[in-house]
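Field notebook, page 253. I keep forgetting to write these up properly, so this time I am using the form the group agreed on. The chain and the ligand, guanosine-5'-monophosphate, are recorded exactly as supplied. Prediction of the bound pose follows.
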Amino acid sequence: LQIETDLRRAIERRELSLVYQPIVRLQDAEIAGFEALMRWDHPKRGNISPAEFIPIAEASDLINQLGLFAFDKAASDLMDWQMQTGDLPVFVSVNLSSAQLLNNELYNDVRAALARTRCEPRKLKLELTESVVMENPEQARLILSKLKDVGLGLALDDFGTGHSSLSYLTRFPFDTIKIDKALVCDGTDKRTVLLRSVISMARELDMQVVAEGIESEEDAVELGNMGCEFGQSYLFGPPIGYDSVLRLLKERF
Ligand code: G
Ligand code: G
Ligand code: MN
Ligand code: NA
């Protein structure tokens, strides 16, 4: 596949970058952190969506390199921002694919990136979907508890889309759940009941809750009243580049 060959070269050719979408506190719209999202500027085809190239990377060994690039880059960007603003009460979360989780090198790679960048582990989170964990629950539990012990945050992403087994919330060391936009924007009358129970369950388990895809101010207020602490959506801001994040942080902190 030509695109796979191109992707293989994309890292060294500096065609891959990260953008950062704010995750805000619903109470006062203050920035709590950012989700790092990968972008590929292809020399001929222009911007290719991660929805297209991540699956290609996942189907080969490339995802491990891409994933490591994202983790290392997110950690070093955060350190660079902090060099210019001082210590920040802000985290960055990075998506993790299943092939990465099952890769024996992941733990050492993560430790090496933390050592290289000197980023505090508690300022970084890994985002995993249920399906990533489900592929091999035993091994996932093992590696996730090791990563937790290192001090990284762990977020269960896209919650409410798959065949959510509630046991995932307790069997794995997640500290955060991200409620998928499909549930946040659900048009049926079950929406309120579902959101209320997910949020109260998460809170009783001492987990932070991020609602994704909140479209209106009314929904933000409603979710806040239900006990949801954080939101991430275009309403609060689109993904932005390194310089824009720095500007935003200088304004706020
Ligand atoms: O940013 P955007 O909506 O285009 O992302 C589309 C999908 O690609 C999302 O599901 C997102 O989680 C995924 N994605 C973006 N960046 C990364 C990454 O660095 N690693 C992995 N595994 N997935 C990513
Ligand atoms: O699967 P994951 O949750 O990692 O994907 C996050 C993706 O959702 C990002 O690619 C981002 O571009 C997209 N996104 C962020 N905010 C919104 C929003 O308010 N509405 C919609 N439809 N998508 C969003
Ligand atoms: Mn995510
Ligand atoms: Na999601």
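OBSERVATIONS:
- Residues 157-158, 178, 180, 212 surround sodium ion (ligand 4) (CB under 6 Å).
- The chain has one domain: 2-252.
FOLLOW-UP: compare against the apo run.
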